[in-house]
Amino acid sequence: MKDELNALLPLARTNALVIQELPDETLVYDEERHKAHCLNRTAALVWKQCDGRTTVAQMGDRLGEGVQIPAGNELVMIALRQLEKAKLLATPVAHLPAEVTALSRRQVMKTIGLVAAVALPLVTSILAPTPAQAGSLKGSGGSCTTGAECDSGVCAVEECL
């Protein structure tokens, strides 16, 4: 299995992404899919190393240093699966060995302990409206908060009427 992990060289997507790094997380907006993703510190550390040259084993070693716990390859694999699901990787990681793909967050938590559970990688995604959707008026039956949003003239907000 170690040889398979050393052969795996994940590559992060870089096109059509707006990236904002914050102290404990990284926000990524996918302009093609109109989705916003919040990567916690662990997931962001893995994603930043997806350069097509760094192996999973190397990522595991560096991740352990970055989160100050014995991270290992398990956390890297969980992060890679989440990054792939969020479409933030340019290359798929579907060819992983069965014992790696079967790992769950719960199994890894048992291995690294509950204290280190905060280090588990997490990618949270939401669908963001396109600029046209965000700037459009509310339709009939919509919930307006100001008169400027009202298109139907039947809103319950006093200033809409």
Account of the 3D structure:
- This protein has helices spanning 2-7, 41-49, 56-67, 72-85, 98-101, 105-112, 131-135; strands at 17-21, 25-30, 35-40, 123-127.
- The protein has two domains: 2-128, Alpha-Beta Complex (Outer Surface Protein A, domain 3); 129-161, no CATH class.
- The longest helix is centred in the middle third of the chain and has 14 residues, at 72-85.
- The chain has 161 residues and is of the alpha+beta class.
- A four-stranded antiparallel sheet has the order 1-2-3-4.
- 36% of the residues lie in helices and 14% in strands.
Brief digest:
The chain is an alpha+beta fold and 161 residues long. 36% of the residues lie in helices and 14% in strands. The chain is built from seven helices and four strands, in the order αβββαααααβα.
